[in-house]
Structures are given as C-alpha cells and as structure tokens.
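Hey, sorry to bother you again with one of my protein questions. I've been staring at a protein lately and its backbone has me curious. I owe you a coffee for this, so here goes:
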Amino acid sequence: MIIARAHANENVAVFGLARSGISAVRSLVAGGAHVFAWDDKKAMRTEAEKAGAAVVPFKDWPQIKALILSPGVPLTHPKPHDVVLAARAMGAEVVGDMELFAREIRPDPAKPGRAPVIAVTGTNGKSTTTALIGHILSSCGFAAEVGGNIGKAVLDLSPPNGKTIYVLEVSSYQIDLSPGLVPDVAVLTNITPDHIDRHGTMENYVAVKARLLHQTAKDGLVAVGVDDSHSAAIQTRLASNGGAEAIPVSVGKVLGRGIFVLDGALYDAQGQRATKVMDLASAAHLPGAHNWQNAALAYAATKPFVKDARAIVSAIADFPGLAHRIEDVGLIGKVRFINDSKATNADAAERALVCFSDIYWIAGGRPKEGGIESLGAYFPRIRKAYLIGEAADAFAKTLDGRAPCEISGTLDRAVVSAYLDSRKSQAAQPVVLLSPACASFDQFRDFEERGDAFRAIVAELADQQVREAS
C-alpha cells in the first residue's frame, strides 16, 4: 500500500466506497488523516468503518480540507453531485485517489531519482496497452506496478524501490480528479465518442484526454495513436508546444517519423530511416489491427526504459492477453466462443467483428449514443444476432433487413440459442461472439461480471456435451 501522508491530522472525506474509495480510506488513515466516509451501500460503509473511517452522511460532515471523490460520481455533468457542491461550499478541494498517489510518489516532479510513471488513456485499447506495457517491463527485469483503472486501485500498489515503474490506466473521470498527476510517459490510444453524459460535449471529453498529455513531464515522452482526427489534432498541438517529445503512432499509414504498422509488421521510424521491428503475427494473443496499435504504443512507451528492442519484441510475442478482450474461452465441436465483454461501445465491438467471419453475435445491454449503426459494414459477417438487455429493440430495428436477429433478452438464452444455431452451420469454424457494444449495467454489475457469466455458460455447455457423449 502507498500511504497518503499529505493530509496528516486533517479532516478528509471519501465519498464512494468501491475499490478505489476503500483503498483511499486505508491509505489516508495510515497517513494520519481524520477520515469521514459515506456510500449508499451498507456493506461498503461497514468496510470503511473497519478500515478506520468515521462513517457519516455527507450532510453531517465537519469542516473538511479535501474530498476524495469516486470516479463514478458526477463532478461536472449532467450536474455536480450534491456532495461536490457541499465540499466546494466548505472551500475543500475535490480530487481522486490518483491525485493522492501523485502527491505521495512525486511531491516534487523535478526531484531526481523518482519512480517513473507511465499513464495510459484513450477511449478503447487502454487496458490492453497498459497490461502489455507492464508485461514488457516485467519481462525485462523491472518491478512494474500496474493499476489505476485496471486491476489494483492505485494506492494499493507497492511503494517504489530502485526498479519500480508505475504503469497506470487512467480514465477520463480520473484525469478530471488528478490535476497533479505528472507522468514521465503518457499514452493516448484513440478518441471516439464515449461518456458524453459525464463530460457534456465531445469537445469537453477530448479536452480531458488531452489534459493528461499536457501534464506530462517536459523531459518525458508522449505517444499518440493518430488514426482518428481528434487524436491527430492533439498530436499536432503537442509536437509544437515545446513540452514532452511527442511520437505519433499509426496502423496502416507510413510515417516519416514515429512508430507505424504496415501489413502486420511493426516499424520504428524515429531515426533516419524506418527499421522493421517485428511481425505482429507472432503475437498470438494480439489479433487484429486494433491490437497492432496497442503493441505499437506499448513499444513506444517502453523503449525509453528498455534499450534492447529484441527484448521488447520477445515480450510482445509472449503476451498472454487480457480477460474479456477478444478472449478465446473455448471450443465445443467446431464452434469457437469469444468473450469480448469489454466492448462497451460500437467502436470497441468493431475491433472484434473485423477479426472473424461466420459470426453468431451476442449484443446489447445499456446502449451508448449512436447505437450500432456505425457497424453496418460488418453486418454481412453476421450469420445471426442475439440481442439482450435494454438495447435489444433498438438494435433489432438497426439490423432489420441487414442481418438475421432474435431478441433473446438475457445472456444465458442468447448463448444457448447461438450455440444451437452455430453448430448447424456449414462454416468450418463458426464463432459465437459476445461483443455487446453496450454498457453492462442493466443486467450486470460491470463488464467483468458479464464476461464471467458468458464463460460460465460456455463451460456448462461444454460439460453438457461431455455428459451426452459418455
């Protein structure tokens, strides 16, 4: 655990007691702060009390110096939560757990000998890129501490030693709450419309993503995926602002300077001429152009620390992949099952649809703005769609006349129906693909629970086939 000492002997409040909130309570208590905490869920309140916080509704808090806000609580849009307004009325700053981390690990960003921080943001691909960076660094002998918006809460990471490099996935919500986070390396994967309800406009969303890159240490490095217009514009501004070195990264486009992937081969064009680094076909768990972008960004982010490119290549090739991201969860007969539950918007689902043909597609949940209309080019790959959750009716209208579909309603019914249909297919290897293009919150706690449920249903189907065969 990283102990937050900046608020020793001060009244500090924590609102929202999920993974990052409870972590903040423990860290602040250990650092000597007087912590007041609240969450609507009784179980969370009980855990905070055990951790040493005074559990009190926010209307009854005393004067506080700071509010540590859960990233899930509205800070600005559609309007600030009442707890935010109350904190500001007291003159308290409103920050997140990642800001506490930044103040503890790097109270003076100019101080030599600090533990380096690599921060990864973007709409899609940031979890895989973060995990891949951590994997490369660990494979090359560093003590990579990976967390933030993925895995461990940032304050649950280990304190630094001489080989520590922190690799953090940072969401737009966390950037909003982390004005003092100064990474040595910042990575922007891409930007497509998402979380507009929490940022008000696309322009605000883009500005938040750009803020993390502008906060990067001036002697540091920024790697930007430039294959979308918003990210490309950010890269152009960064390249001329006199700050951190800005490296463009592209898939499918040759760059005069930067890192790019062409026909599945990774090239480094940061020197006088482009040099082929590796064939990404050797990275079995990084299929598709979107994962080529992830690999190229990870290469750019780790090269300042790992001088031997061959070591980076070896680590990329043996990366095991991440759960819920185009995860191959098994084969029953000729039918392959792919868990892509992390695809919570259409742009993310596109990354899976492009990887397969003969798809029996499970989609739906709580819809995002724009629905699935943008996926029309991939509908010919879909043999049939099985629609679940709140988006089912709207998705059925979009698919009408363009791909067969049924409204299954729930995930278990969808998986069983898709399997029964796919095993009758004439295709050599049909794919049952869970890539919902929706948030999970209508039927599941989060995308992990949804993906775990898919995996469990597939396992039960496999067991059933074994029983029937015996």
